[in-house]
Fold this protein.
Amino acid sequence: MQFIPETIRIRDMQGNILAFDITIQKDGPFTAVTARYLEQEPVRLQNAEFAEMFHHCPPETPVYAEGYNMLSQTEGTLENPRDVSGLTDRGHYKLPVRDGFFTGYGLLLILDNPIRLIGYSSAARFCGKIHFNGEKIILEQDLGGIEVNPGETICLEEIMLAEGNDRELLLEQLGNRLAKHHPYPEYPVMPTGWCSWYYYGGGVTQEDICSNMDAMQRQLPALRFVQIDDGYEARIGDYLQTSDRFPDLDGLIAQIHAKGFEPAIWAAPFSASADSRLLKEHPEYFICDEEGKPLASDRYTFGGWNQGPWYMLDGTNPETCAYLKGLYAEMRKKWGIRYFKLDGTIWGAFWFGVRKNPRMSYIEGYRAGMQAILDGAGKDSYILGCNAPMWPSIVVHGMRITGDISRNWGVFVHSAKECFYRNWQNRRLWINDPDCLLLENAEVTVVGPDGNPVKSSTGLTDEELGFHRTQILASGGAVLNGDNLENLRPESWELLCRCLDIPDTAARFDDTDFTIGRQMIGDDLLITLFNRREEDQLFTVDLAGCFDVYDFWNDQVYGRQVPSVSLSLPPHSARALRCKKSRKDK
């Protein structure tokens, strides 16, 4: 695929093609495009579109495409794409679609021979879309209605076009280039701890936090964070005021510090409910409708899973950014909190509404707001993005990479797939957060990201729980438990302790079946095997050397100084094999 200036069309908000002087600069597989506006009047820009390109691949060729939002991923084929999860960009969030095409964001992998990667290797101002079907591909950048003046030059997002036989190597190239443009703020240790959401949900109380913290101190003080999730706040948007279930949040956080742990807290920074103090006192902070009034998000998209419809803060407004910086600086100063789980951040990055600064795109506004939060939280903070726009969020320390977990076999399978498609991002774009580790059955109901209740089953087998546990290990990411620690069995505490031996890398898989993963844990090789089938599955793995092979979870010996290992796994199970080099190979 080649780009020439004549094939790039930049349109105004009415769809008219405008006169621009286009400059194209190539750097290996990367293409940078700048455009100087040649007309005489200021204009607002709708999009930049590259000509339709025939991909010359069979329509049944497998694909993987990223979503705009964290919850959206796509697999299937060029002709028949298939959603990985149920909460999609086009369905749940109602993002615009193009007739006759499916839309990916940031990345499209065409899993042909050779594999082709089409992606965006920067995300500073504009939303990079990739439209595809069984015949064609169209690259489009949503310019978000930004205003430009005569003679002004804009830089479009960099495009990567590459092919090769190694899927992981292509993704590594893309990740390294994204990190070059947007270096992530590295965090020195992998976060570990406990989170309240997946046992208590929004009904969590101060007493619940205390009892679990006490159990942590008795059983596993090596855990670091006590995460107070959604439910402590008075209203969405008012995070310094607490609900009746938290009569003394100051005292609770002081206890967390006193017991040797660190408090972590949830917030939805770009959202506020209609009855929030923030919206009532500062309507000027918010994205507006055409009449200048704060705009309810449900006019165009999903309105929020609790206390909706939510209103959206405007990051293009310097006053809004000053507020965000001040809020997180106050939470840091008042409570000593350095870990912030920022949920629903996509509400700061939707495409619609009137913003304060017409010369800033919605992506720029979102990134400005996120940077204000980072500045307020401080340099040694940990900012976790969740329910977030993917590429625009390459500014955080950590990122949730899966949908919400629950105690359900089908959810375990989907979560593993969502996670492994994104393993390449770990410690390259951010620290991957595969969501909470669940060690035991429990019958609980929490609210899902679509606002509907999600009930956990109590019928998971030990093998199924082991599958989920091994998926967390293979992610190489953060480890936060989501059980009721007060009732956790001794054997579960032992497993949780072993989870703190976190691999140095995320597992690499040969293909998108995601059955055999390889990663390093110190000087050792870690092999993870996954059987999603309804019948036994035989695995034979060449170790490329002689190793002593142990089960990561229980130290069972599978072989000493062996060059390969063969195991038959029962249905719905996984194994983690720690492979230590024999002395003669050292």
